[in-house]
Amino acid sequence: VSLAARHLEENGIPTVIMGCAKDIVEYVGVPRFLFSDFPLGNPAGKPHDPASQARTLQLALLVLQAAPAPRTTVQSPLRWSSDPAWKLDFSNIARLSPEEIARRRAEFDRQKEIAKTIRKKPQAAE
Amino acid sequence: MSEDNEDGFGFAPEHDAPIPYMTRIRDYYQALGYGAPYRWAHYAAVPFAPLKKPLAESRIGLITTAAPYQPDKGDQGPGAAYNGAAKFYSVYSGETDRDHDLRISHIGYDRTHTTAEDNNTWFPLPALRLLAETGRIGEVAPRFHGAPTNRSHRATLHRDCPELLRRVREDKVDAVLLVAV
Lengths: 126, 181
Fold this sequence. Notes:
The complex is a heterodimer of chains A (126) and B (181). Chain A is mainly alpha-helical and 126 residues long. Chain A has helices spanning 2-10, 22-28, 50-66, 98-118; strands at 15-19, 32-35, 72-75. In chain B, 21% of the residues lie in helices and 15% in strands. Chain B contains 3 helices and 6 strands. Chain B has a 4-stranded mixed sheet with strand order 3-5-1-6, with helices on both faces. A two-stranded antiparallel ribbon of chain B has the order 2-4. Chain B is globular. Classes of the chains: A mainly alpha (126), B alpha/beta (181). Chains A and B meet through helix 1, strand 1, helix 2, helix 3 and helix 4 of A and helix 1, helix 2, helix 3 and strand 6 of B. Strand 1 of chain A pairs parallel with strand 6 of chain B, so a sheet runs across the interface.
């Protein structure tokens, strides 16, 4: 959606992105970004936590309203967990055994075949 | 080694920072045997369109990368493994005056630490409607739009982006909220 946000802005429509992949969205280069430091899949707040969802949306609208310039990123003050250990897991090859790497390689090939029958190969989030 | 004993400074652990996804993903796929690294879109210049009226008078559009649930396309969660069959390949739209069953099994979200049980964590349409009721925003646009995630950059830039622009213009939005999964 980063590319879509850019395209809309180029055509005069203000945007704000809600997302969890800070480096990727900022690398693309977007006008306004509310970053939640949560596991990928939770750009709009925590599961089963309406207060966190409402807060996250409110923050996104504040960013939309008040960003002074492009590349405005605001990081939500909400925490996923008091223990940050979850951040060590995602796609962290250093944490996988050779057997697990082999298993995932096979699964990746399988998914790629499925995707190919529909269209193109998979790609990372955001 | 520093002679400072850092206990007492209140520093967070070193890994308590936003995950470096680009590095992680690049290293991961390389280890899985996919040599040519993915090249993320990247621009030096960034456009910026100022808001033209207060949010309380604005019509807000919504763009999502989530997919409508398709019962014939395998397990789409909660908790489903990555499901390449559930992907979609062209922009779709839905009415915002009703609820929708959107899923993210076609996306590489963090399956270790979240299970995609609550679609309000990636599709804030009910929350947005609530803000329209309370007057925080003027109104929700009549439609939301689904943006495909897995195309080539060429398809995204030349087909999907113009199509999304066309649709939000039709909806006469004043601003758009995009939710990236």
